[in-house]
Protein: E2 ubiquitin-conjugating enzyme
Organism: Gadus morhua
Amino acid sequence: MAHQTTPSSQKALMMELKSLQEQPVEGFRITLVEESDLYNWEVAIFGPPNTLYEGGYFKAHIKFPIDYPYSPPTFRFLTKMWHPNIYENGDVCISILHPPVDDPQSGELPSERWNPTQNVRTILLSVISLLNEPNTFSPANVDASVMFRKWRDSKGKDKEYAEIIRKQVLSTAAEAERDGVKVPTTLAEYCVQTRVPSQDSSSDLLYDDLYDDDMEEEDDDEDESEMESGGEEGQCEEHDGELS
């Protein structure tokens, strides 16, 4: 069937896909865009309960390079997302997806960037963490970042950011219905069918304190987080002028 020797990246992706199907990450569904193409995956993300994204059904594509896992994939939301670290075209700006080059100006350590020990599972956990804990120091969407900070600093009294997110969540209901998907809205529903393996206990970060910030020590009574995948919310790089 294969015209040439199967690239090692195909074997790696096949193993990862099998692992994610057998031991899914909570709140995610993974499928191939086309069965014959291992390099393009479709991701459905359920918004975690007890967050602004509760009840949401968000779709994204992960596109892998031919030399994966030595180079990182790209992660692009297909669903419209208003978020400090998501570009207007849906691309996610996150350290773990940046190539492992030494770039002092970025503010990122090479250890925070992609390396071949990372995988789709760590990417998914980093993305869900980023949704709830945006990095506002080098945003991909400046307006969303300003709005998020107002919401966070006002302890939710400034509702503009939250209202935009909730509207986006509500707008995803039609797509979920089209796909025949029942979106979980309680922790029990969210966790039961897709119990994450014990080594990925970092799924606790789904319920991190939404007001937490690197520059401020605000211990709200909501919860305290332990970030396993440290640094995944790093600086954004130049993005071909997609933001004005």
